[in-house]
Amino acid sequence: MNGLSGTRRLASPVRLTLAGQLGTDIDGAWWPHTASVASELPELVGVLHRSLGEVVDIRVNWSAAEGQLNLDSIVTGTRLPAGVKLSRPRLMLVAGRDQCVKLLVVPCRTSVTLGGLVMRCAAGMPVEESVRNTPVFDTADRVLSVARVESARWSVQLAAQAPV
């Protein structure tokens, strides 16, 4: 069930961007409000239903044991403690009856400035020239580059599994 029996106004709207043209390594981004992705999933499915048709499958590239990538630590230049491995970007493949999208999942604790830029960049939306010359934009661009590499790697794994 897609939870589409009626429309309801959400206290916190779904933060989702989708590219105009789907089918690339990253088709957009989803920025949950909390760390509980599962609790926000029904609303995401409801929003995606319009673009994808009935959602029939969702896959993720992470396990519950993996930590989230802290995007803000990249922009501030925070160093990881010795022995701590940098997590990979979280990706979600959502398959509908009509189309599929691969979304970058922005960690909920990401700052508004960086999160907004990552969302725009993931969907291929325009960014003002004055913003393009900032460390935050450089970070968003780096995050997308790493996410695209991870997406390509993950696509190979998905192709080896049962089709979506």
Report on the structure:
This protein is an alpha+beta fold and 164 residues long. The chain has one domain (17-160). Helices cover 38% and strands 15% of the residues. It is built from five helices and five strands. The chain has helices at residues 37-52, 71-76, 112-122, 129-132, 135-160; strands at residues 16-18, 28-30, 55-60, 90-96, 100-105. The protein has a five-stranded mixed β-sheet with strand order 1-2-5-4-3. β4 and β5 (100-105) form a beta hairpin. α3 crosses α5 (135-160). The longest helix has 26 residues, at 135-160. The chain is globular. The two termini are 18 Å apart. The model is unreliable at 1-6 (pLDDT under 50).
